[in-house]
């Protein structure tokens, strides 16, 4: 792709839409496939491919999308296990107890919880929350993640919700 790679294109698409995405790539390593699927692709096909298989996969994704719809969260309440974020009231609770967060911590946690199970890279988190290009964002994001863990986790060193995916980024566990 001339301006951005498929992973970035998928992440940008996922910011606004929940439509089927099939990655078609020459990258055949398992890590490439896993990264593509974790970053938001619904399917991953490697070159060379059978055109009939591609058509079948497109039809499958369209059938699933038209049957189930986009399933976007319209309630503005994001929940995983005992962690609940009420975006209208800007309130976070864990097991019914209110948790106070700074605005930046709230934005990070909301982004991760609204996309529970999806891994966000450090640069992606920085760009989405701070709305600027990430330059050496690792320490900044790590400090905020640590502070969030101190507030929402029973044992921040063994987190239940906010997990690190080593070498890739962070996610909120889908519970």
Shape: globular
Q: Label the structural class.
A: alpha+beta
List the total number of helices: 6
CATH class of the largest domain: Mainly Alpha
Q: Tell me the major beta sheet.
A: 4 strands, antiparallel
Low-confidence segments, given as residue ranges, are none
Q: What is the beta-strand fraction?
A: 15-25%
Order of helices and strands: HEHEHEEEEHEHHEE
Domains counted in the coordinates: how many? 2
Instruction: Please tally the β strands and state the result.
Output: 9
Spell out the blueprint of helices and strands.
Layout (H helix, E strand, L loop, with lengths): L5 H11 L5 E4 L4 H9 L4 E4 L4 H18 L8 E4 L2 E4 L4 E4 L2 E3 L3 H12 L5 E2 H9 L7 H15 L9 E4 L3 E4 L3
Parallel strand pairs: 1-2
Antiparallel strand pairs: 3-4, 4-5, 5-6, 7-9, 8-9
Helix pairs in contact: 4-5, 4-6, 5-6
Features:
globular, Arc Repressor Mutant, subunit A, alpha+beta, 19% strand, 175 residues, 6 helices, 4-stranded antiparallel β-sheet, 3-stranded antiparallel β-sheet, 9 strands, 2 domains, Rossmann fold
